[in-house]
C-alpha cells in the first residue's frame, strides 16, 4: 500500500511504498532546473524521511527527460544570496553541506542530463543508479563558477584525485559508462529498468536491520569526512552499542531458523 502527497508548488512529490520514501523532482518543463521551490521541496522531503522511524530508505528520482540540469541560472544569484543570509542549522540541505544531515541512506536514480547542482544532489546520496545514455558533469568552470554544491569534495572521495580534477577543472561532460568505470555511479541499466532497479536496492536496504544500516553508514561517513582515527573511535563505540540490541538477537535467531529477520530498530 502506498500514500502520496503533492506539495502546493508541484515541484516535489513524495510517495511511501512499504518502508521506502520515493522523492520525485517534478519540474520537467525546465528539465528539473533547481529553483528555491525545488530546493525547499527536497529539504522538506528529507525532514519527513528523517522524522519517520518507519521509513528506512529513500529513493530520489525525477520526472521528465532529465534528472536535473542544475541550478536555474535565472534565479541562481538570488538563491545563493538568500542561502548565505538565512542558513538554518535545523534544515536539511539537499547538498548535504550545512545544517542537519540525514542519518539514513538515500539511493539516487538519474537519467538524461544530470549536471552541475543536479549531479551534486545525487552525489549527496549514498548510491547512484543511472540509466543508459545519461550525461554527467560539472560544467560550472565554463560559466565562471566552481562546483560549490559539494562536487569538489565528493568527486575525489568517489573517484580519486586525478579522475576528479580531470572533470572538475575542465567542465567536460562524461558519459555514463565512463562514470561507472571510474566509480561515480554504481550501476547502469536500461532506462525502462531504472526505477525498478533503484527501488529494489532501496527496498533491500529498508529490509535490513535499521541500526546496522544507520551505524554502518555513520562510520563510513566518518571515515570519508573525518579520517581513519575518528572513524575507528566511532566504530568501537557503535560496536559496543549494537551487540546488546534486540535486533542482533533477532538476526542470530532468524539465521538459525532460516527465515528473514523481523527488525524493530532497537
From TrEMBL:
<dbReference type="InterPro" id="IPR018376">
    <property type="entry name" value="Enoyl-CoA_hyd/isom_CS"/>
</dbReference>
<comment type="similarity">
    <text>Belongs to the enoyl-CoA hydratase/isomerase family.</text>
</comment>
<protein>
    <submittedName>
        <fullName>Enoyl-CoA hydratase/carnithine racemase</fullName>
    </submittedName>
</protein>
<dbReference type="InterPro" id="IPR014748">
    <property type="entry name" value="Enoyl-CoA_hydra_C"/>
</dbReference>
<dbReference type="Pfam" id="PF00378">
    <property type="entry name" value="ECH_1"/>
</dbReference>
<dbReference type="GO" id="GO:0003824">
    <property type="term" value="F:catalytic activity"/>
</dbReference>
<dbReference type="InterPro" id="IPR029045">
    <property type="entry name" value="ClpP/crotonase-like_dom_sf"/>
</dbReference>
<dbReference type="InterPro" id="IPR001753">
    <property type="entry name" value="Enoyl-CoA_hydra/iso"/>
</dbReference>
Amino acid at each position: 500500500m502506498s500514500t502520496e502527497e503533492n506539495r502546493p508548488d508541484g515541484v516535489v512529490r513524495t510517495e511511501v511504498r512499504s518502508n521506502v520514501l520515493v522523492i520525485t523532482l517534478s519540474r520537467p518543463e525546465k528539465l528539473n532546473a533547481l529553483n528555491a521551490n525545488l530546493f525547499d521541496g527536497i529539504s522538506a522531503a528529507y525532514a519527513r524521511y528523517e522524522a519517520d522511524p518507519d521509513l528506512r530508505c529513500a529513493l530520489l528520482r525525477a520526472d521528465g527527460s532529465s534528472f536535473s540540469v542544475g541550478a536555474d541560472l535565472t534565479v541562481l544569484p538570488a538563491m545563493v544570496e538568500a542561502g548565505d543570509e538565512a542558513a538554518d542549522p535545523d534544515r536539511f540541505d539537499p547538498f548535504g553541506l550545512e545544517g542537519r544531515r540525514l542519518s539514513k541512506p538515500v539511493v539516487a536514480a538519474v537519467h538524461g542530463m544530470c549536471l552541475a547542482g543536479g549531479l551534486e544532489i545525487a552525489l549527496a546520496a549514498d548510491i547512484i543508479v543511472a540509466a543508459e545514455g545519461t550525461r554527467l558533469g560539472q560544467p560550472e568552470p565554463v560559466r565562471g563558477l566552481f562546483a560549490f554544491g559539494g562536487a569538489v569534495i565528493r568527486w575525489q572521495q568517489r573517484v580519486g584525485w586525478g579522475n576528479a580534477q580531470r572533470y572538475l577543472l575542465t567542465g567536460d561532460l562524461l558519459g555514463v559508462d565512463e562514470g561507472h568505470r571510474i566509480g561515480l555511479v554504481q550501476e547502469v541499466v536500461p532506462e525502462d529498468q531504472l526505477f525498478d532497479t533503484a527501488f529494489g536496492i532501496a527496498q533491500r536496504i529498508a529490509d535490513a536491520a535499521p541500526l546496522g544500516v544507520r551505524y554502518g553508514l555513520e562510520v563510513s561517513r566518518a571515515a570519508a569526512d573525518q579520517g581513519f582515527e575518528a572513524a575507528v573511535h566511532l566504530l568501537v563505540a557503535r560496536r559496543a552499542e549494537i551487540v546488546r540490541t534486540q535486533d542482533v538477537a533477532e538476526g542470530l535467531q532468524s539465521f538459525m531458523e532460516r527465515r528473514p529477520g523481523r527488525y524493530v530498530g532497537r
